[in-house]
Write a structure and sequence with these properties.
With 244 residues, this protein is an all-alpha fold. It has one domain: Four Helix Bundle (Hemerythrin (Met), subunit A) (Up-down Bundle), CATH 1.20.120.1760. 71% of the residues lie in helices and 0% in strands. The longest helix has 28 residues. It is globular. The two termini are 32 Å apart.
Length: 244
């Protein structure tokens, strides 16, 4: 038996999981293309993003273990997020289809809680699953930032909402104490959800630039504060991390 409770003989090969994910991305792209008629670059971006995701999964997931239903739920959401991110640069040309984009983004947000419930129900929580979920959240937020920028609902500064975390990850390569594990935080989760909600609302047609910019600026201020709290906490304990 593996850690997810599957016998080796019933383990689904990882390439098969990635294959159905690719098929889902194709179907979502075709449906989106039929409804919104995006440029050909949209399809290339979606394919590149999914192949990149596959490469990261193959690199991080042990080949001898079943992928698990919780990770499959995350992959399902990931397929939708990838289509949304690939479509984001062309949001300014969607016009009447912006409502469809908003509904798709709302579905991606709702699905965010499914994988965690499946993991707890099956006893298959893992560091990989938590990281997989977190990276999809980061990509989703960056995609929504790009969509808001493409719609001229806010200035280029809005990209900071999606890039702050990537800047933190880049900094962790130079300051190893930033890699120490952080405790679970309701504050961190709340700020993340607030980011996504404000970005999602900003892309909707009735929302004007002033309202969108004001709410997004608030989200950015909360995000910077949240990262400051975490970085300060890690800095205070940097010597313990060095000893370990």
């Amino acid at each position: 038996m593996d850690s997810n409770g599957h016998s080796a003989s019933h383990r689904i090969p990882l390439p098969l999981d990635l294959a159905w994910g690719f098929g889902l991305v194709v179907l979502l792209c075709l449906a989106t293309g039929w409804l919104t008629t995006p440029p050909d670059l949209f399809y290339l971006l979606a394919a590149a993003l999914y192949l990149g995701l596959c490469g990261l999964i193959i690199r991080a997931w042990p080949e001898t273990r079943d992928f698990g239903w919780a990770n499959r739920a995350t992959l399902l959401r990931g397929c939708l997020v990838i289509v949304l991110v690939a479509l984001a640069p062309f949001a300014g040309h969607l016009t009447d289809s912006l409502w469809l984009y908003g509904w798709m983004a709302l579905l991606a947000l709702i699905l965010d809680g499914v994988d965690g419930k499946v993991a707890r129900a099956t006893g298959s929580e893992s560091d990989f699953g938590a990281r997989f979920d977190m990276e999809l959240d980061a990509l989703f937020i960056l995609g929504l930032c790009i969509a808001v920028l493409a719609l001229d609902k806010a200035g280029i500064w809005v990209l900071a909402l999606g890039l702050v975390r990537y800047a933190f990850v880049a900094a962790s390569h130079f300051a190893d104490w930033l890699n120490a594990p952080l405790p679970d935080s309701f504050r961190r989760k709340t700020v993340c959800v607030w980011q996504i909600v404000t970005l999602l609302v900003a892309v909707l047609p009735p929302i004007n630039t002033l309202f969108a910019s004001a709410t997004l600026a608030t989200a950015l201020a909360l995000l910077v504060w949240s990262f400051f709290v975490d970085i300060h906490w890690l800095y205070q304990r940097r010597h313990h991390h060095d000893v370990d």
